[in-house]
């Protein structure tokens, strides 16, 4: 099946120093490249150059919010891997903790004592397109063995981190009380695979909470976890599919539905007005794109939790027919407790899905009323029509940017945690090619974020395309050019692209995030 | 048959208001193991459709209006997830329900065992005479691979004084009959024991007419 090498014919890495090599039409040249602090300085926020350059500081890059950030500040990959090590300690804290960190009351799950005579829980997941109930495969079959990737969830102790053998990588992630094992024939790095396992782990936590998970294994060491995970296989399948396809999970960022800023502001303020006491987050989605997010003051959502919500919505048909009401743990917010999410589509056949995250499990009717009020307000202010129109063209072709030989790009604003990307162009539209493009980006990403030898930029000629990646303190940019492009051309396009994104940032990003 | 109905209530908060002519709220809950067809039954009740679906996440809330000759009932249907991980929240939905459907799959014996566990659970909670409980053997279209004989289901229902019916959400067989019977039964038991909450709405959005009721079961609601 897969497993063949994707050929890098010419392996050339040419590190560029963006601040020296590239011409910088600097408007704010007094600003040092690294400001050393994660929180952007207020003075800089106002300094939004129309011709931004790579030497921008975080907080002034195109796409950076004008006010506070919506998400927990996430550097990206480091955030994930670093917390992998912290987590062990966190578990200890959680066990004795009161479960209401960050000042919000979150309901603790009721763990029940479970009795069942079975040995180690073992769960197997495959990448399967489409929702629907997938029949469990026979693990002795050739078909099962030929999958590109397998994920096992075990309980118990293990100290091995990874095994490399005959083109297979076996990666272990120990998150007490579980051990996640990934078996892969892809060329992904150990770190990439670990990150994917971490997502799977958080997916499990989002359904059960860490408290409940720890509890069942305390009661019974050889508890068969499949019992509690039954019915959620499609969530894991879909998550693995997203990990292969969605740049957001790779970049630790979320993309927005392009929308005139006046329309988006109207939607945000309508959502803001439809509040309830127990509401923490109100999120409007169009497919897997964010339309807007309103949050309780002082509460921030982690992009990973948002991706888990996207995955929940995207892989379940049950919110289509009625209003969904479900307990959900947002593990990056709090692994100990459940929120309760009211999830419903604005119309049965619509792509627009509203998620209202509440702390009160008995507040269904109140939230249902919030949705009604939101819709009413939206219609009254005729934003609904504008939103419907925007859905007709949910993205933009790369040609709009007007850069020759540019096929595709992904731009992430670090301070907002939002990214933008044009439509997948024709050469990459089939599933296989789309995943190949993603693997190229994944490769660039892993080079840029290498734990010991990180790069600021990289240019690469492959047989079917040329690639350029650039990471500064303000943004990350990945570009894909046709093989006819040259390095000089690629480098010269960066400022033009940044300028274009700056011009369009009102439409492509959420610049005015709202709170209740 | 099933006419159109409103998908979602969009929000009337469950205050105990009593205005207007005879629009009554009926809280109905669907219980049972995973994959027995609870969501498919709910979809049949509300839209008279059948679609393959993924397992329900948490719970889904749907509504359907049923018109009887002298009153109109608005069913507020709580379609619960069958998976064990959601059991801790299920009592929210059967608490105070006027009708509870305990569903099993006639082609899976295990689901029948689970239905019995649900019945035990319900018995701990219900207020005698208030909840109309129906044991529903779903997937009647799979009678070729039947593992739970009709008589076994019937006898269980009879021994506990429940209504019993076999349905097929896939073909639609017996589904509207089931809903009509519940409507009558709920109406009847409520006028005997306690009033249903009336709604300040006069118009009847969806109409489900028909007086056929071909339930096999004995005729008392739980506990009477």
From TrEMBL, chain A:
Coiled coil start-end: none
Annotated Pfam families: Fuz_longin_1, Fuz_longin_2, Fuz_longin_3
GO cellular component, one term: Mon1-Ccz1 complex
GO annotation terms (biological process): protein targeting to vacuole; vesicle-mediated transport
Start and end residues of each stretch annotated as Disordered: 28-64, 84-142
Biased composition (Basic and acidic residues): 99-113
Residues covered by the FUZ/MON1/HPS1 third Longin domain: 405-505
Residue ranges occupied by any FUZ/MON1/HPS1 second Longin domain in the UniProt entry: 277-375
Domain FUZ/MON1/HPS1 first Longin: 150-239
Domain of life, per lineage: Eukaryota
Function, as annotated: Plays an important role in membrane trafficking through the secretory apparatus.
Family: Belongs to the MON1/SAND family.
Protein name as catalogued: Vacuolar fusion protein MON1 homolog
Organism expressing this protein natively: Conger conger
Taxonomic placement: Eukaryota, Metazoa, Chordata, Craniata, Vertebrata
Automatic annotation (TrEMBL), chain B:
A GO molecular-function annotation: GTP binding
SMART domains named among the record's database cross-references: RAB, RAS, RHO
A Pfam family annotated for this UniProt entry: Ras
InterPro entries assigned: P-loop_NTPase, Small_GTP-bd, Small_GTPase
Top-level taxon: Eukaryota
Matching SUPFAM superfamilies: P-loop containing nucleoside triphosphate hydrolases (SSF52540)
Swiss-Prot/TrEMBL keywords: GTP-binding, Nucleotide-binding
Family: Belongs to the small GTPase superfamily. Rab family.
NCBIfam families listed in its UniProt record: small_GTP (TIGR00231)
Stated name of the protein: Ras-related protein Rab-17
Organism: Conger conger
């Amino acid at each position: 099946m897969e497993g063949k090498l994707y050929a890098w014919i010419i392996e050339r890495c040419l590190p560029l120093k963006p601040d020296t090599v590239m011409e910088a039409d600097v408007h704010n040249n007094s600003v040092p490249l690294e400001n050393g602090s994660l929180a952007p300085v207020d003075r800089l926020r106002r300094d939004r150059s129309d011709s931004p350059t790579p030497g921008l500081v975080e907080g002034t890059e195109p796409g950076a919010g004008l006010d506070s950030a919506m998400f927990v500040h996430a550097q990206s990959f480091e955030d994930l891997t670093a917390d992998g090590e912290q987590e062990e300690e966190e578990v200890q804290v959680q066990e004795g903790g009161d479960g209401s960190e960050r000042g919000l009351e979150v309901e603790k799950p009721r763990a029940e004592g479970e009795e069942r005579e079975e040995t180690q829980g073992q769960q197997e997941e495959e990448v399967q397109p489409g929702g629907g109930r997938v029949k469990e495969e026979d693990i002795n079959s050739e078909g099962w063995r030929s999958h590109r990737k397998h994920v096992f969830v075990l309980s118990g102790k293990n100290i091995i981190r990874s095994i490399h053998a005959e083109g297979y990588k076996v990666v272990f992630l120990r998150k007490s009380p579980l051990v996640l094992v990934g078996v892969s024939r892809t060329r992904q790095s150990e770190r990439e695979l670990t990150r994917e396992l971490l997502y799977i782990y958080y997916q499990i936590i989002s359904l059960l909470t860490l408290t409940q998970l720890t509890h069942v294994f305390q009661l019974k060491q050889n508890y068969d976890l499949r019992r509690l995970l039954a019915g959620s296989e499609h969530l894991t399948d879909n998550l693995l599919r997203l990990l292969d396809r969605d740049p957001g999970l790779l970049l630790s960022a979320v993309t927005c539905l392009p929308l005139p800023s006046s329309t988006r502001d109207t939607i945000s303020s309508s959502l803001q007005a439809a509040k309830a006491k127990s509401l923490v987050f109100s999120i409007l989605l169009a497919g897997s794109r964010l339309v807007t997010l309103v949050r309780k003051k002082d509460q921030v959502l982690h992009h990973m939790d948002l991706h888990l919500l996207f995955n929940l919505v995207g892989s379940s048909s049950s919110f289509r027919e009625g209003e969904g009401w479900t307990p959900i743990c947002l593990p990056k917010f709090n692994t100990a407790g459940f929120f309760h999410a009211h999830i419903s589509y604005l119309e049965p056949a619509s792509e627009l899905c509203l998620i209202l995250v509440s702390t009160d499990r008995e507040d269904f009717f109140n939230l249902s009323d919030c949705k009604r009020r939101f819709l009413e307000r939206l219609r009254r202010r005729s934003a609904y029509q504008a939103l419907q129109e925007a859905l007709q063209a949910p993205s933009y072709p790369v040609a709009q940017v007007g850069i020759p030989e540019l096929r595709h790009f992904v731009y992430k604003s670090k301070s907002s945690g939002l990214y933008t990307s044009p439509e997948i162009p024709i050469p990459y539209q089939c599933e296989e090619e789309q995943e190949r493009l993603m693997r190229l980006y994944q490769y660039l990403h892993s080079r840029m974020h290498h734990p010991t030898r990180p790069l600021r930029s990289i240019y690469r000629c492959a047989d079917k395309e040329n690639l350029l990646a650039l990471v500064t303190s303000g943004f990350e940019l990945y570009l894909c050019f046709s093989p006819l492009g040259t390095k000089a051309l690629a480098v010269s396009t960066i400022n033009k692209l940044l300028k274009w994104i700056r011009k369009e940032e009102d439409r492509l990003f959420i610049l005015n995030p709202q709170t209740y | 048959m099933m006419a159109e109905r409103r998908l979602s209530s969009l929000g009337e908060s469950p205050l105990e208001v009593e205005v207007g002519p005879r629009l009554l709220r009926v809280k109905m809950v669907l219980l049972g193991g995973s994959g027995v067809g609870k969501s498919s039954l709910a979809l049949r009740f509300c839209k008279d459709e059948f679609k393959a679906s993924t397992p329900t996440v948490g719970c889904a809330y749907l509504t359907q209006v049923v018109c009887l000759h002298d009153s109109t009932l608005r069913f507020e249907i709580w379609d619960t997830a069958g998976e064990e991980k959601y059991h801790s929240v299920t009592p929210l939905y059967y608490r105070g329900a006027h009708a509870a459907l305990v569903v099993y799959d006639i082609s899976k014996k295990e689901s029948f065992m689970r239905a019995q566990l649900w019945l035990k659970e319900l018995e701990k909670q219900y207020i005698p005479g208030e909840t109309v409980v129906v044991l529903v053997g779903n997937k009647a279209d799979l009678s070729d691979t039947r593992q739970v004989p009709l008589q076994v289901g019937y006898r269980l229902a009879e021994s506990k004084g429940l209504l019993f019916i076999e349905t097929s959400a896939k073909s639609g067989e017996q589904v509207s009959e089931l809903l009509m019977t519940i409507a009558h039964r709920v109406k009847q038991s409520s006028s005997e024991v306690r009033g249903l909450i009336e709604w300040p709405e006069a118009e009847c959005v969806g109409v489900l007419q028909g007086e056929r009721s071909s339930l096999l079961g004995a005729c008392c609601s739980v506990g009477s």
